[in-house]
Amino acid sequence: MTTGLDRGRIAAFRERLERRQQIVHEEIRRALAESDQQHHVDLAGVGDLEDHALADLLVDESLADIHQHVQEYRAIDAALMRMEGGHYGVCVDCGGDIDPERLEVYPTAVRCFDCQSLYERMHPATSPHSI
Ligand SMILES: [Zn+2]
Predict the structure, then answer these.
(1) Helices 64-85 and 52-59 meet at what angle, rounded to 10?
(2) What separation in Å is there between the alpha carbon of 96 and the centre of ligand 1?
(3) 35 against 72, higher pLDDT
């Protein structure tokens, strides 16, 4: 199985994703700190979003900002896991390579351009950022 990406390029994507994930993590913490006190009390003591149960909890929040950050955090997490599994850059729908240029724009992309276009036609509410 080839991903069309050499190890050096994957390492560069990984670095980029990990950096971005840290920023998103900070944004979530900040948004939580600024959100109302009840959330603050519930969540302030939880220091680390490695805990996926917390991410689940946050997804239930109606706070749009946080929701969006958590979505991105999870998308990055999923991309890093695909790297671990050796199938980063492989389309989940057709199994083909995702164009590296597309990954440059959307490093968390799970579909090739054709499958994503099809997916968005079938799921119009899904933005390209939330994949
Ligand atoms: Zn595809």
Answers:
(1) 140
(2) 6
(3) 72
